[in-house]
Structures are given as structure tokens and as C-alpha cells.
Amino acid sequence: MKYKDEIEKRKTFGIISHPDAGKTTLTEKLLLFGGAITTAGAVKSNKIKKTAVSDFMEIERQRGISVATSVMSFEYRDLLINLLDTPGHKDFAEDTYRTLTAVDSVILVIDSVNGVEEQTKRLTEVCRMRDTPIIIFINKLDLEGRDPFDLLDELESHLNIKVRPLSWPINRGKSFKGVYNLHNLQLNLFEASKTKKSDQILTFKDLNDKELDTILGSDADQLREDVELVDGVYEELNREEYMAGKIAPVFFGSAVNNFGVQEMLDTFVEIAPTPLPRASNVGRIDPYQDKFSGFIFKIHANLDPNHRDRIAFLRICSGKFERNKFYHHSRLNKDLRFNNPYSFLARDKNLIEEAFPGDVIGLYDTGNFKIGDTMTEGATFEFQGIPSFSPEIFREVVNTDPMKSKQLEKGVRQLTDEGVAQLFIQQPGSKKIIGTVGELQFEVIKYRLNNEYGASCNLVPRNFHKACWITTTNDKQLQEFVRLKASEVAYDKDDNPVFLAPSAWMLQMAQENYPDLKFHFTSEFKTAKEI
Ligand code: G4P
């Protein structure tokens, strides 16, 4: 197959949702369609039990499973679909944000009972930074959910995106009868079933067909009214606007019943983008360019504490990746080769000889990689758009075993390179402050420092409101700020100055007193669209 055909065969995407909306269930159904799994329930184990916050065995088990299911590749209608899993637990949100840098589009799952929730908003904001195309699946129509028009209004106003329904539900909850596909004018009648692969479809090119009344009874008139309103209110779906992340097609269904999923998948394969160009510090890198390039967006530690090697996940952005060929590590200015890279086709780890743009491969790493690293075929450049976001909770690492300070140092560095938490170094004394988005990571860190590095520490709460990366063209003002605010300034992994603002008010004061300094809540100030 030609190189160009290999690229055009691939669609790489992620499913995002607020926890419990149905992401895992939908993932499983998509894999069922792709033939990657044959039984329902296979993906279920890929979740940390929501209540098991302190259950370390559960965390370890999860880490093991999530390596295998981090990327799920399957073939569907001559396409190769790469589905990148994103952790559902909100404490791992940062991991999800980073995974979103490696996809070309997303499917957003909304719970029809709860509508837009907190994580839905945050995740969509991250997608908006890169204009990632979004398809929305409104789930759980078998429950007494909210009115579909209200849900659409809420999506538009809270997520700041235009929507266009491509299917329409006929009632909901106990009287849910099915969905009408507004695109191909077919009626899909609801039937509760967890494993079936195809829906019961009837074609109604004309909604005034009397047969519709026989099937739907009094709901037929309501459907006619709704469809008229939908067509009057919502603009036609324009693919360019979808590709620019400005309009999102919306589907209704019930993932657990495998209902409405196929319709969405069929539209997904039709309109979702093939591998897109990626922003770098030397301009956009086109997937069709023949020299290999890619970046690391996730690092997974080995579960066996006796083996320190890790697995780095690399998204290929251009060219062909080949096993055993030397590639250039831009940050380290060093050539590396990989003799056992693997892919994730059909959920097994397969050794690969070659891979193409859109693919994600696993590379064994002995400590060369940090999240965001770029690999190229000779050229020296760095991909952009893999930002760190301000953590929410901060703790200072205080060593409790002076004999093990080297181990602690190494452990903290390696865990933060993996992206478990963010590390900020504060002077004098090189104090280590780690920041996370949730409490769970602190437990993971303490446990792993002890278990894998033999180090022990206390994590002492530090009361900061936000980490703000500072930029300026006025160096003098920056130096003065750093000198006067020494107890609130720290340096991130790349030695960038960061203001650890004690409160929103202090941040506002800093902004007023130092007008030439800019404070940012993410480490990357130029978004991909500006480059
Ligand atoms: P998440 O990954 O987004 O966190 O959600 P997940 O798929 O685990 O779904 C959360 C709960 O919602 C699950 O129930 C799941 O069965 C249920 N669910 C998913 N889709 C639908 C749907 O279309 N209709 C209804 N009624 N429920 C749905 P659970 O009780 O947490 O787990 P389980 O015991 O059912 O496995």
C-alpha cells in the first residue's frame, strides 16, 4: 500500500466524558463493531472503582490494564481506527488533557439526565485550544432524561460550540421508541440489547407516511413537529466548520443497549479527520512529509519494581517509523533506535516493523523520555501544544529518611517525568513542590516512591491557588518580581519561572503591580492555532 493510502486509512480519536456518562460503555460497543472484542464486559475492568480511592491494589491493577487498553486499534470499513483511552477518574484529568494532544478528533459523551457537567466543560475547553473536531453522543435515552431541545441549548451555551443534531429521539425513558436519522431519513426502532451489532432500521423518506403512525402511534406527530423545528433552528452540518471545531454533530442513543452507536460510528468514519498536521517550533509538520517525526504524550512505568524500564507512547506525526532505525531525540540531541516497538492492534501488544502517521506505538524506555519529547529523522525541532495545566493541589516533598535522599530525588524526578504530577523547584534549598489535580495522585506518589524507590517522605500541604507561568519582554521587571516574591516563585521542569499564587486576589495584585508580566494558567502560551 502506498504511503499516502496508509495515512488516509487512519483515524485517531479519543472518547471524553464526565465520569459515569458512559465513556467505557461506548468504547466497548465501538470495539464490538470493530471486531476487536467479542464479548461485552471486556473493557469494564478498565476503570478505577470510583470509591476505591485508597485501594492501592486497585491502582496497580488499573495501571497494568491501562497499558494494554491505552490505545485500542481496530479495523472498520477498510479504515484503521485508533482509539486512545482517556482516564475517567477526574484526578487523572491531566493525563486526559495530554492524550487529547495525540488525537485528531473526539467523541464527547453526555448523560441525558445530567446534561453538561464539570468535566465536560473542562475537557471541551482543552479541545477548543486546538480546534479539535467534536462529535457529541447524548447517552442514556432509556432513562427519563432531559428534553432534547434543552440539552442542545445547554451544549451550545456551556460549551460555546454550535450543534447540529443528525438524529432525533422519539420520546425517552420508559416510552423511548427509537431515533430518527435526519441524515439518511431512517427510523431506528429501540430494542434493549447489550450485544447486538445492528439496529432495526426502517426507511421513511417521507415523514407523512401513514405507516409511521401505525408504528409510533401518537408519537409520530410529535416527531414530525420536532423534525420541522430542528430543520428550522439548526444550520446544516458543514464539514469545514466541523473540522475547525466550530460545529458539532449530535447523536442520541443508549450505549449500554448498543443503540444509536452504529449510526454515530458510520458518520464518524465518513467525516472525522485523517491524521492532521501538528504545530512545531519550525511551523506545521505535515503528515504527508516523508521524514519521520512524532512526540511522546504518555509514559507508563513498569509494574515490576525490579525493572525500571518504562513504556513511552509515541504519536507518529509524519513519515514512516521503522524498527531498528536510528531517530533523533531533539531535547537530548541524541540518536536512539528501538528494537522492540509495538502497536496495539486488536488489544494485543504486537511487535511492529513499521508504523504511519496517526499511529501510536509503545517504546521501551530506560529513562530517556519526558512527556512532550520530539523524535525526528535527523531534523532538530520540537512539537508544540503539549502544555501543562495549572495544578489544583500543592504539596511540598519532605524527606523522612535522610539515608535515602538520592532515591527520593530520583523517584520524584522520574514520577514527574512520567506526568504523574508536576514538579516545581523553589529556591533556596531546592525545595520540591509537587502539584496535581486530585488527591489520588499523592497517594499514588507516596506509594510508588516507597514501593519502587525505597524512599519515604511526607507530603506537606502548601496553600497555593494556582501555578501561573510568567512571560514578559521586560526582564528587569521579572527579576524584581522573582527577587521580591521568592517564597512564591518556583521553576518548572524546563526551568521556566512560575508564580505560585497564594490566592486569586494576590494574583490580581501581582498583575496590577507588574503590568509588563503576563501570568498564564498553562505552560504553553501560544496555542496550536497561533503557530
Ligand atoms: P464512564 O466510563 O463514563 O465513567 O461510564 P460507564 O460507561 O462506566 O457508565 C456509567 C454507568 O452508566 C454504568 O453503570 C453503565 O452501565 C451505565 N450506562 C452506560 N450507558 C447507559 C445507557 O445508555 N443507559 C443506562 N441506563 N445506563 C447506561 P454502573 O451501574 O456504574 O455500572 P454497571 O454495574 O452497569 O457496569
Report a brief summary of the structure.
This protein has 531 residues and is an alpha+beta fold. It has 14 helices and 31 strands.
Q: Notable features of this structure?
A:
six-stranded antiparallel β-sheet; Alpha-Beta Plaits; disordered C terminus; 14 helices; Rossmann fold; seven-stranded mixed β-sheet; 3 domains; binds guanosine-5',3'-tetraphosphate; Elongation Factor Tu (Ef-tu), domain 3; alpha+beta; globular; 531 residues
Overview of the molecule:
- The protein has 531 residues and is of the alpha+beta class.
- The protein folds into 3 domains: 4-271, 3-Layer(aba) Sandwich (Rossmann fold); 293-376, Beta Barrel (Elongation Factor Tu (Ef-tu), domain 3); 393-530, Peptide chain release factor 3, domain III (Alpha-Beta Plaits), CATH 3.30.70.3280.
- 28% of the residues lie in helices and 28% in strands.
- It is built from 14 helices and 31 strands.
- The strands form 8 sheets. A 7-stranded mixed sheet has the order 2-3-1-4-5-11-6, sandwiched between helices. Strands 18-17-23-14-15-22 form a 6-stranded antiparallel sheet. Strands 7-8-9-10 form a 4-stranded antiparallel sheet, with helices on one face.
- The radius of gyration is 24 Å and the shape is globular.
- The two termini are 33 Å apart.
- The structure holds guanosine-5',3'-tetraphosphate.
- Guanosine-5',3'-tetraphosphate is lined by residues 17, 19-25, 44, 88, 139-140, 142-143, 254-257.
